[in-house]
Amino acid sequence: MMVSKIFSLLQFFTLFTITFASTEEATALLKWKATFKNQNNSLLASWQPSSDACNDWNNLSGTIPPEIGNLTNLVCFDLHINQISGTIPSQIGSLVKLQILCIFDNHLNGPIPGEIGYLRSLTKLSLGRNFLNGSIPASLGNLNNLSYLYLYENNFSGSIPPEIGKMKSLLCLSSHTNNLSGLIPKTIGDLTELKPLYLDANQLSGPIPNDLGNLKNLNYLALFDNQLSGPIPNDLGNLKNLSYLALSYNQLSCPILNDLGNMKNLNYLALFDNQLSGPIPSVLRNLKNLNYLVLSHNQLSGPIPSELGNLKNLNYLALFDNQLSDPIPSVLGNLKNLNYLELSHNQLSGPIPSSFGNLRNFQFLFLGNNNLIEEIPSSICNLTSLVVLHLSRNNSKGKILQCLGNISSLQYVMISHNNLSGELPSSICNLTSLQVLDLGRNNLMGAIPQCFGNMCSS
Ligand SMILES: *[C@@H]1O[C@H](CO)[C@@H](O)[C@H](O)[C@H]1NC(C)=O
Ligand SMILES: *[C@@H]1O[C@H](CO)[C@@H](O)[C@H](O)[C@H]1NC(C)=O
Ligand SMILES: *[C@@H]1O[C@H](CO)[C@@H](O)[C@H](O)[C@H]1NC(C)=O
Ligand SMILES: *[C@@H]1O[C@H](CO)[C@@H](O)[C@H](O)[C@H]1NC(C)=O
Ligand SMILES: *[C@@H]1O[C@H](CO)[C@@H](O)[C@H](O)[C@H]1NC(C)=O
Ligand SMILES: *[C@@H]1O[C@H](CO)[C@@H](O)[C@H](O)[C@H]1NC(C)=O
Ligand SMILES: *[C@@H]1O[C@H](CO)[C@@H](O)[C@H](O)[C@H]1NC(C)=O
Ligand SMILES: *[C@@H]1O[C@H](CO)[C@@H](O)[C@H](O)[C@H]1NC(C)=O
Ligand SMILES: *[C@@H]1O[C@H](CO)[C@@H](O)[C@H](O)[C@H]1NC(C)=O
Ligand SMILES: *[C@@H]1O[C@H](CO)[C@@H](O)[C@H](O)[C@H]1NC(C)=O
Ligand SMILES: *[C@@H]1O[C@H](CO)[C@@H](O)[C@H](O)[C@H]1NC(C)=O
Ligand SMILES: CC(=O)N[C@H]1CO[C@H](CO)[C@@H](O)[C@@H]1O
Predict the structure, then answer these.
(1) E strands, 263-332, where?
(2) Residue 83 C-alpha from the chain's centroid
(3) What is the CA(412)–ligand 10 centre distance, in A?
(4) What are the phi and psi torsion angles at 356 (to 5°)?
(5) What is the dihedral of CA 298, 230, 184, 222, to 10 degrees?
(6) Measured from the CA of 24, which atom of ligand 1 is nearest?
(7) Are 285 and 311 spatial neighbours (Cβ–Cβ below 8 Å)?
(8) 168 lines ligand 4 (CB under 6 A)
(9) The domain containing residue 185 runs over which residues?
(10) What separation in Å is there between the alpha carbon of 109 and the centre of ligand 5?
(11) Ligand nearest to the CA of 348
């Protein structure tokens, strides 16, 4: 009677793919279940035997008791997205058959017990989005069957242990949004199976190790929002499978290396908010899959290379706040997929290329704070999707285009601080979506069109 009762309950523990070798284990499990605070949770009642061994239970609260250590046959422990609180007991180190430990998105605090290093069968360790702290235990290096290590969005501090490089099976390492400091260990370069590597939003400092260039299978590399310094290492150019490279918000310096031109699969390149200097390398023309290119807020100088006109897939291009000079290459008008262009705060001179009239997908055009002294080309009026036209602080001359009134999508027109003259055309009244029209500091004259009523134009 008692035994059958236990088993009918155990049926519902679908997350434990274990054979209960002893009544001791079953007792431990039930004891733990009894610690859940919300016993009457309707989800508990609906637990069904499932083909998915790692079924998740939602909305459970309670703690993980030390007795968990008695479940020595446990293979899969999955309680992700619940409200489990307290610490991870060191007894977890007894679950030597555990292959999956998945408790992300709970309220766990305290450190990862060093005993985790005994779980030699682990293939997936997922602890993200909790309140865990302390340092990453060096014993993790013993987990040489581990493929997935997720530590993101916790409060881990201290440095990344070099032993991490011993986890030769690792495919994915995500430890972003913590408080990790010190150097990125060179040994990460030994994790040659690694595909994504996320260490962004920490306090990591020092150089990016050249050894990362050994990670031949890497497709995602996110190191942004740290305090990394020095050059972008040459060997990163070996990462031919990389599709995403984000090194922004650091203190990287020196010129952008030509080897980046080898990353033929790159579609996202973000190097903004660093101290990179020198020219924009023309070899970027090889990055034919590039979709997003942001180099803003650096100390880049020289012209915008006309080779960027080869990047036919480019959708988003931002080079603002550098020291770029010379005219804007008119071949940028070939970038048929361009939707966003921000070149503000440079020393660009000459005209706005009339070829921009070809960019039919253009929605956002920011060219303010340059020296674009010529007249605004009427081809701009062909940009029938344009939402933002920002040309403030230049020396553009001529009249405000009558045809601007044809761009019915316009919401923001900022052309203050220029040398525009003549009258404000009444066609502006057709811009029914207009939210901001800033024309201050020009040489405009005449009346403000009737349709503006009492609206102030500057
Ligand atoms: C489980 O382990 C604890 C110590 O961690 C022990 O006190 C207890 O007797 C064991 N057995 C059960 C069924 O909880
Ligand atoms: C749980 O449900 C039982 C009967 O349905 C009820 O007697 C008990 O008070 C409930 N407990 C809580 C904590 O709601
Ligand atoms: C989760 O539990 C809390 C109370 O413990 C309850 O207020 C909430 O509605 C539950 N959410 C879901 C999705 O069941
Ligand atoms: C590690 O994985 C291999 C291959 O899947 C397996 O044969 C071996 O038993 C695993 N080691 C442990 C400690 O589970
Ligand atoms: C971890 O957090 C606890 C509070 O949850 C705190 O008492 C402890 O000092 C923290 N440890 C470290 C290493 O920051
Ligand atoms: C992280 O730890 C620091 C110091 O121990 C504490 O001040 C901070 O509130 C913690 N942050 C989170 C998100 O737990
Ligand atoms: C980060 O860690 C440092 C010690 O390394 C500590 O002083 C600081 O409070 C922590 N910051 C946060 C936001 O947890
Ligand atoms: C790169 O990715 C392809 C498939 O996307 C894969 O076949 C190849 O092994 C990976 N590694 C290298 C070094 O090219
Ligand atoms: C603007 O579009 C019209 C019609 O679509 C075309 O004839 C004209 O050449 C275009 N002008 C420019 C400068 O692209
Ligand atoms: C723009 O609108 C004017 C009328 O204001 C019209 O004559 C002209 O053909 C339009 N131009 C384009 C390119 O649609
Ligand atoms: C506003 O648009 C209408 C219809 O598209 C057009 O007939 C009219 O000429 C336009 N007004 C101005 C001032 O361009
Ligand atoms: C008229 C005007 O404000 N021109 C500005 C255009 O932008 C350059 C660069 O920021 C300024 O030096 C000019 O004063």
Answers:
(1) 268-270, 275-278, 292-294, 299-302, 316-318, 323-327
(2) 26
(3) 20
(4) -60, -20
(5) 20
(6) 13
(7) yes
(8) no
(9) 2-325
(10) 8
(11) 12
pTM for the model stands at 0.85
- Packing angle of the helix pair 2-10, 23-35 (nearest 10 deg): 60
- The residue among 14, 58, 10, 8 whose CA lies nearest residue 36 is 58
What is the domain count for the chain? 2
Query: Average pLDDT of 83-96?
Result: 95
- Is there a single domain that holds both residue 287 and residue 261? yes
- Closest ligand to 431 CA? 11
Residue 206 has pLDDT above 70, yes or no: yes
* Distance from residue 121's CA to the centre of ligand 4 (Å): 6
* CATH number of domain containing 363: 3.80.10.10
How far is the C-alpha of 114 from the C-alpha of 258, rounded, in Å?
43
Q: Which of these three, 325, 354, 369, is where a domain ends?
A: 325
Domain boundary residue among 292, 325, 358? 325
Amino acid at 11: Q
CA-closest candidate to residue 175, choices 231, 112, 233, 263: 112
430 lines ligand 11 (CB under 6 A): yes
Could you tell me if the CB of 417 is within 6 A of ligand 12? yes
Alpha helices in 72-218 (DSSP H): none
Ligand closest to CA 182:
7
The Cβ of residue 74 has, within 10 Å, a number of other Cβ atoms equal to 24
Residue nearest to atom 10 of ligand 3 (CA): 59
CB within 8 Å of 311: residues ≥ 6 apart? 284, 285, 287, 288, 290, 293, 335
Q: Give the separation between CA 88 and CA 154, rounded to whole angstroms.
A: 14
Q: Are 286 and 312 in contact (CB under 8 A)?
A: no
Span 389-415, pLDDT tens digits:
998 888 888 888 889 899 999 999 989
* CA 256 centroid distance within chain: 21
For 409, the token pair is 């999508």
Backbone dihedral region for residue 126 (phi beyond 0: left; psi -120 to 50: alpha; all else: beta): beta
Confidence label for 43 from pLDDT (cuts 50, 70 and 90): very low
